[in-house]
Design goal:
single chain, mainly alpha, 0% strand, elongated, DNA-binding, transcription regulation, DesT_TetR_C, Tet_transcr_reg_TetR-rel_C_sf
């Protein structure tokens, strides 16, 4: 009898295995320092196979950005129950964001540090993800305004600006939390919630802070 042939791994599974290795390598070594040799060795495949499946280092990095951006977006959206009160929705979204970035530090390094440091097309890939998160947060803040007022007190421009500020703060805080020992995802989310919600609540109840006259 002839030897039993081993079952080939499906291409999609092998490709994800390579991308897992790439995210880990890019996240820990940086885009410039990471080599295709390292990625192939970590994935347990030959370097020619990595090139065959994923074309080039640039294409591989772009694919990693798209995959990890989609994973983060799905995690944040899945974490929010639209039936909850506005503050609970915002808290759930923030917590889902910080849990995901804490559990996937290499992916967050790829999205927040590496992709933004090496120009196009990587910056645009991350920018598309950020736009989607900002749009989602804008919806949460708008819902909070509608909950507080039958005729919302916050103008669209104010809501958009608040969403941009909140997402920017979350991005910076996630990087700090991942680099600081013993800072949990819950603690990071609570820090930002305490910082943001008091101000949002004042705005939604027509108690804005007014800058002094110049």
């Amino acid at each position: 009898m002839g030897a039993v042939k081993s079952k080939r791994m499906p291409r999609a599974v092998r490709e994800q295995q390579m991308m897992d290795a790439a995210v880990r390598t890019f996240g820990q070594r940086g885009y410039r320092a990471a080599s295709m040799d390292e990625i192939a060795e970590l994935a347990g495949v030959s370097k020619p196979l990595v090139y065959l499946y994923l074309n080039s280092k640039e294409d591989l990095f772009s694919a990693c950005i798209r995959r990890e951006a989609q994973s983060l977006l799905e995690a944040v959206r899945a974490g929010v129950d639209p039936g909850l009160p506005a503050d609970a929705q915002l808290w759930a979204g923030l917590r889902a964001f910080f849990v995901h970035t804490a559990e996937n530090p290499d992916a967050w390094s790829v999205l927040h540090r590496q992709a933004r440091s090496h120009g196009e097309p990587f910056v645009s890939e991350v920018g598309s993800m950020r736009d989607e998160i900002v749009a989602f947060v804008t919806g949460l803040i708008g819902a909070a305004a509608r909950e507080a007022h039958s005729d919302p007190a916050l103008a669209d421009r104010d809501v958009a600006g608040l969403a941009q500020a909140l997402v920017g703060a979350a991005e910076s805080l996630a990087g700090w939390a991942n680099d600081t020992p013993d800072v949990s995802a819950r603690e990071a989310a609570a820090t930002l919630m305490n910082f943001a919600w008091a101000g949002l609540e004042n705005l939604m109840h027509a108690r804005p802070w007014t800058p002094p006259a110049a």
